[in-house]
């Protein structure tokens, strides 16, 4: 028989990855455009530097994170970020260094450290190949990966299960550092968007990573199945804000890119000028 109305027992499962009662925020930042992206090549864990556009994107993201409450404000706590953690690959390191330099420009400091757990998904035999070559040589495998990413992956590459296994310790360290020495929070304060709540005063950290690893990060934090890998969109130098209240994660902002608007305007002007020049030939 059903439980009486209003008295139904609800069972919740708390992911032990997230410290009990954690009040904290993570700002996830994807790296800027790399040379392989410009060339249309699969990157994975290949070492590729930022392109000139990527360096501009990183500088704009860095400026926004160095002054996060300037309009358009990011939904991060008051005070400086606790640490800046990043994948050790060149494109993420360059992006992280840009953020570090922007924060330190006015005399502030932030601890920066690389973590191998944040490396991009290894793409095996696909790394370094142009997307058209991969389609031609590995068409069925590529289609299977796009259709069922939990059950298919690049030959010689990492499965999503393997990726999640190496990612979890990195996330555990991040969250433990944020919760160290702080009392557990509560859910007594309502969390409803639109009520102009002041910025919280709990700790926060910045994480610079990759499209694939951030997809798995979000699935892991929200205890969603890895089959949902393709549900998240992560633009270059887009910023995603995850807030934890009493250990419960909430997406406060996803893939914020307003800070890149000036770069988009420059590209539009350049493209318009290029069309005018070609039309004059």
**Fraction of helical residues:** 25-40%
- What fraction of the residues are assigned to beta strands by DSSP? 5-15%
Order of helices and strands: EHHEHEHHHEHEEH
Strand order of the largest sheet: 3-2-4-1-5-6
Tally of DSSP β-strands: 6
CATH topology description: Rossmann fold
How does the major sheet shape up? Answer: 6 strands, mixed
Q: From the coordinates shown, what is the CATH architecture?
A: 3-Layer(aba) Sandwich
End-to-end span in angstroms? 80 Å
Structure description:
- This protein has a single domain, classed as Phosphoglycerate mutase-like (Rossmann fold, 3-Layer(aba) Sandwich).
- The chain has helices at residues 35-39, 52-66, 90-104, 131-137, 139-147, 160-179, 211-221, 261-280, and strands at 24-30, 83-86, 111-114, 204-209, 239-245, 248-256.
- Strands 3-2-4-1-5-6 form a 6-stranded mixed beta sheet, with helices on both faces.
- The protein starts with 23 loop residues before the first strand and ends with a helix.
- It is of the alpha/beta class.
- Helix 2 packs across helix 3 and helix 6 crosses helix 7.
- Mean pLDDT is 88; it is low at 1-15 and 272-281.
- The relative contact order is 0.21.
Would you kindly provide a brief summary of this structure?
The chain has 281 residues and is an alpha/beta fold. It contains eight helices and six strands. Helix 2 packs across helix 3.
